[in-house]
Amino acid sequence: MIAPSAEPLVLDVSGLTVEYRDAVRTVRAVTGLSLSVARGRTVALIGESGSGKTTAALAILGMLPGSATVLSGSVAVTPAGRRLDLLRLPRRELRALRWQHIAYVPQGSISSLNPIQRIGRHFQQTAEAHALGRRAAEARAMELLAAVHLEPRRIWTSYPHELSGGTRQRVAIALAMLLEPEVIVLDEPTTALDVLTQEAVLTTLLELQAATGVSYLAITHDLSVAGAVADEVITMYAGRAVERGTAEQVLADPLHPYTAGLLRSTPSVDSDLPVQSIGGHPPSLSDLPPGCSFHPRCGLADERCRSGGPPALLPADSRTVACHRVSERVAAGGPG
Ligand SMILES: Nc1ncnc2c1ncn2[C@@H]1O[C@H](COP(=O)(O)OP(=O)(O)OP(=O)(O)O)[C@@H](O)[C@H]1O
Ligand code: NI
Questions:
Q1: C-alpha angle 157/148/206, rounded to 5°?
Q2: ipTM metric
Q3: Which among 100, 184, 255, 301 would be 20 to 30 A from 290, CA to CA?
Q4: Domain extent at residue 216
Q5: At 218, which CATH number?
Q6: Which residue's CA is minimally distant from atom 4 of ligand 1?
Q7: How remote is the CA of residue 59 from the centroid of ligand 2, in Å?
């Protein structure tokens, strides 16, 4: 088990299940996802494209499109010991809570910023929606833009297209901090940035966290991003969490064959091992294989993995793993 953090929880998600429906098919994009984030901590959701990471984020933020339904589960933000269940609040109240308690830096900051508005206007609009006065908002924006290492005055009057990708990402992060939320959801925070810019943005996120105690839920397919920022890592496969543990455990010594495969398919600066991609493809979410969803791609799969339901997330070697083979090995007292 993961040692419970001494810090209070700021986000508590339990049993989240989300479906997309259209005339032709039903896609269960997230199944039974539980996670919690403590103050000042970072949890990373990792997994290939289509594993359900963005859907989980949008459900947590109450921003799912109309074609999606939350079938079950709860999402609570817990500012100062209060518990606000986001899935049960009226839309208007939810909009107020967004930014104030939970904010979002969406994937691709260019699409999150309105191209015909100067950056300053973005801050003012967010402030207006939450009854933060114009002056106070501008003063706070100046501080935040400086805190993310931008030139506040120049940025304030710029249009999004005048800024580089890294700068826009910094603006999106500053904007997310405007109402001092307890937690920020970061969807692929460094995708499409060059390596040096990626590192600089991640360093800035860590600085902000150290300075303010903000928590992050970071969504990434990039294990090096998870390694750089996360305290805890959750691997998702076909909509389910399949491994959960501290970042050191999961990224240095993965137990689930899928996490191990992800790690082998990632080039690493500290390893000379050849990069080896996971064979095959993720399954179609509207037509999952029986048993463990990963079994068609898994070198360890046996009969049990191919039939019945998906394996449960069980404690194994100080973390939790959803894999029959790992559970057997741990039960037999084999090497972790
Ligand atoms: N608006 C939508 N309508 C129908 N299906 C959707 C919609 N958005 C996502 N999906 C489906 O839900 C599944 C999970 O997608 P999601 O975007 O949550 O994954 P992801 O892990 O964030 O992937 P990526 O790394 O590509 O962003 C996919 O099969 C996707 O096709
Ligand atoms: Ni995504």
A1: 160
A2: 0.98
A3: 255
A4: 7-116+180-335
A5: 3.40.50.300
A6: 20
A7: 12
